[in-house]
Fold:
Amino acid sequence: QKEVEQNSGPLSVPEGAIASLNCTYSDRGSQSFFWYRQYSGKSPELIMSIYSNGDKEDGRFTAQLNKASQYVSLLIRDSQPSDSATYLCAVKRDNAGNMLTFGGGTRLMVKP
Amino acid sequence: DTGVSQNPRHKITKRGQNVTFRCDPISEHNRLYWYRQTLGQGPEFLTYFQNEAQLEKSRLLSDRFSAERPKGSFSTLEIQRTEQGDSAMYLCASSLGALEQYFGPGTRLTVT
Structure:
């Protein structure tokens, strides 16, 4: 079992719809959770961080964390074609070093 | 405030040659990380520095890999006797303490 799992996709949504991206993790000691966006051929760009259970909103993005279920998700409202990218989920154990453990990413395609 | 910079952006080398990459972190960031990413995968942690001290190394970092951060500012990653399996994107990230990690543009290595 991978430490951080994501559906590789592609997830295809029409422009203006809500895109829902999901991530599960196996290490219950994980304390910090991050979503990065990566365009093809580019490096990861941090878009959201979340540290406590519940929802965190930033513009069109909402991150949701449920530590009991070991589940973190990212919602993108009013999806735009420019949102088409791979979305990487990353987790960190704050009490065991500072490395990020990444999932394989979900490719999102927003169709005009 | 400039972001993380990496040089070179692309490197093509022949098997058996040595290569060195440089990373300049965001100026006030005291932590610097190296990751490696292959096609279709999420980044994998290699090593990290707090100031000039190398505090953590992944099992992925074989004896052919060495990283330094001599003055606690820029860092270099050297790969000796390159192999075709070393072909990947090498990513550098920096953070202020244990806060969010920001990635540079990466160095794409191709070993022929």
